[in-house]
Amino acid sequence: MQISDVSVEGFRCLAEIKQVPVLRQTVLTGQNEGGKTALLDALAFLLKGTVLSERDLTYLGEGEAEDSDAQARVAQAVVEGSFALRPHEQEDLGLPEHVRIRRRYRPEAGSFLEVRRRVCEEAALQDLAALKLPALKMIANSYGVLPVGSATARDSWEKPLRQLADTMPQVDEWVAADSSIETALPSLVYFRGDAVQAPETVIHTLLGSRLREYTRADDAAKRVEELEEYLASSLTADIDRIREHIADRCELPSVELDPQVQVKPALTGVELTIVDAGGRRIPLSSAGTGRSRRISLALWASSNELTQNDDGTMSDVVFVYDEPDTHLDYTRQRRIMSLIQEQSAQPNARVIVATHSLNLIDGVDISSVVHLRTHQGQVCVEVLDEGGADADVRRHLSTIATTLGFRNSVLLHERFFVAVEGVSETSAFPILFRKYTGVPIQSAGVCLMAGGSNEGALRFAKFLADHRRDVAFVVDKDSRTNQKQVFRDDKLKEYGFTPHKHCFYLGAPNELEDLFQNADWADTANALWPRTDGLGPWESDDLAGLRSGKKFSSALLDMFKTGSLEGPQSKEDLMVGIAAHLPKERIPEDLTKLFDDLVMRARNAGPHLW
Question: Would the pLDDT of 312 be above 70?
Answer without folding.
Answer: no
